[in-house]
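User: Some background: our group keeps a shared notebook of sequences we're curious about, and every so often someone picks one and asks for a predicted structure to add to the entry. Today it's my turn. The entry only has the sequence so far, pasted here. Could you supply the structure so I can complete it?
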Amino acid sequence: MSVDAEIPYGTSLADKDAIMSQIENYVLTLPELEHVSMSTAGLSMMAMTRNATMTINLVDRGDRNRSSREVADDIRQHLSEMSGAKLTVSADSSITSMFGSNDISLMILGKDYATLEVIGNQLLERINELPEIAHAELDVKEGNPEIRVVIDRNAAAHYGITAYQMANGLSSSLSGTKATDVTIDGEEIEVNLSLRDDYAQSVENMKQIVVTGSYGIPVSIGQIASFEYDNAPSVINRYNQQNYITINAEVVGSDLEGASSAIERILSSYAFPDGYYHEMSGLASEMMGAFGSLAKALIVSIALVFLLLAAQFESPLMAIIVMMAVPFAMSGAFLAMFVTGVALSMTSFLGLIMLVGIVVNNSILLVEFIRHNEAALGKTEALVMAGKLRLRPILMTSATTCFGMIPLSLGIGEGGEMLAPMGISIIGGLTASTAITLVLVPSIYSLIDERKTRREERRAEKRLKVKELERQWAEADRAANKG
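Assistant: Of course. Here's the predicted structure to add to the notebook entry:
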């Protein structure tokens, strides 16, 4: 977990430390805490930053009662009234760590950055009201304060001064310019000339800096330019030649699809100005793409199992009978996820794919026994004996698989939360398919075999009729020949 504090520009390091100490004092009271580290130096690899960051490590999931998101919500709620900094509390879920992204990211694109910020704040207010959203924030950060020198082009042109000359004059006066090199004891030392530091300490002093234009007339900068206070943008994001800002949302629980649908309803009711539009990204978008790939994998696995069974039984019909357990396994898996409150996720989808190869084993035991003993015992007796003799091994194999999945479904151990949906889907699917297989597969086999028998009997009758007609025609031909 991490706590990012955005502190106003100009805050001293001591005040930063005082703010972060307030946060640290509460974090240290958390029973789930393992250790915490804090940085208030305000330095990053690229540039200065006024943010302070706290990294929180929790004990293993098996040693605490609350998830990292629940702890983050607790910290966020406790520190909501804290003044002096804008806090962002984030917790890495198992899915977030897999994809390295926010739960839901909404990109708002357009030309004008100020308009984007207005749209973003309006949408942010509505999104934060959704019960499916734990927390949402806009990635717009207030930049560092700056002084902008706006040139009066008419006045500057009167003195023959261009914007470049004015900017160069300001830079040389305040930052200095190289005048010469001095060699002392064989070492060259660069000499820079600049005005006194007093000129950089106030705007009024900077206005007194003199520049000379093309006409050779010296003029103070205050006569040809105005000074404005503003904030420099901290970052400018571009996508397909458009400016954009992002709303990042954290979902309550793991129902990404429900939260995405709720946000889509807000977006559909919002009137975007001309030239402004939105795009969804983040975990929700990435998972939809991943679900598409997993759905294809599920179809391919069903096709491969069918082809293998058809080749082994030398009958596509027998393969269909065996695979009748698959739809009921899927139903059982979804029912188990519904009962336990687990949403469909990447790992639970992987469990569905695994079920395709697991649940057909029970059907294979029944169908193979019936086929081998049908000729000796008869169809009805073979069906009854298959249920009696194969019941125990079917229940044993199913029970051992389900019991073996219980620790996985409980989320025990490091990373157990991520794999728990897989165990739940496998247990639910295997339990449902086992119960259905013992009744459904023999019944379907009996019905199909009866239809097959009746069809063969009809074909036999047709063959007898044809032979009888052929015999009658032959006798008629012989009688005609004698006559």
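Suggested note for the entry: The chain has a mean pLDDT of 81. The radius of gyration is 38 Å.
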